[in-house]
Amino acid sequence: MVLTTGGAAHEAYRPTSADKFTFGLWTVGNAGRDTFGSETRPRLDPNDSVRKLAELGAYGISMHDDDLVPYDASPAERDRIVGRLKETLADTGMVVAMATTNLFGHPVFKDGAFTSNDRAVRRYAIAKTMRAIDIGAELGAKIYVFWGGREGVEAMASKRPGDALDRFRETMDFLCEYVIDRKYGMRFAMEPKPNEPRGDTFLPTVGHALAFIGTLAHPEMVGLNPETAHETMSGLSFYHAVAQTLWQGKLFHIDLNGQKIGRYDQDLRFGSEGIKDAFFLVKLLEESGYEGPRHFDAHSYRSENMEGVWDFAAGCMRTYLILKEKAKRFAADPEITAALAAASVPELALPSVGRYSAKSAAELAANPGDPNELARRGYGNERLDQLVMELLMGVR
Length: 396
Ligand code: GCO
Ligand code: MN
Ligand code: MN
Description:
alpha/beta, TIM Barrel, 16 helices, 46% helix, binds D-gluconic acid, binds manganese (II) ion
């Protein structure tokens, strides 16, 4: 494999743990099964994944309970498996940055987990989550993700959405109290997705989820884990979704991948689709002071063998670092700086009217400005965007 070895240019983009790159065990462990065909790759031992990711320069991993401990394992078996992973983490210096629950794989969740119509299923889902939170806490995870994979419907008549949201809220409030009670010091990150596997999912977008968090008993403990593919599936700009999440102080975690607009969830290698979106996203994360993991929730093409899987993982990190370097060049480029000024970009940071007073309102009413005169200017956006494209195409 040539991408990560040899040459000065390759060295410059070699990841280290300081870059905080993490991968789900299920991402590199994805065996290539899809709706039309079976596995094309062997199942990986999580300990081998940790070792290989460490070698490639990752910082840590994330995991569902079932990625590590089979759901029917005995308590002794569970302890043995968790103990072995702890040793591998200690050996490699890797961390478990995020943990989550598989609430979608088992047939019991076919009508949903926290929002199943069957109260006994809802109670089982909450019990499974508490057990998974315990494993996450034991492994040091500080972020716990809630992706409502099966929380939705195909048949519209099958659930009253308001009841489902009540149950979702009840569950989040209960589990916040659980974490507080156990003194785990964890924060929760909700992951919206519009559809797949359900026809329509509750909390389909970043906007819906942000509004939902405001209704919780412990809103300060709950933020978001937005995903590139999910917002893109909705036809929305992931960059803008993440920007608003940051603006609201709610970016607790992030799922990075690649996605063509309007398709099923493709989970492609980060940056492999929508390079301009990926660039502005990296620029945003790097300039925002976001300190959380740069987490990849993606997987290798089904066509690949294990060599391709590791090329995929290295590629996600390398693309991120190349875009990070481009963001620095963007900031230092005098022509780009001039184009930003011509577009009045810095001016948007200035208050428009400041705080209301009767006097300032009267002054404004008396001198509103001349719209015809104000309409004469151009904003130079063609030039600005062309400069961005040239930067990305490697000629600046
Ligand atoms: C998907 C989701 C999942 C979640 C994961 C962690 O579309 O399948 O993105 O990969 O991120 O279950 O909660
Ligand atoms: Mn995800
Ligand atoms: Mn996804």
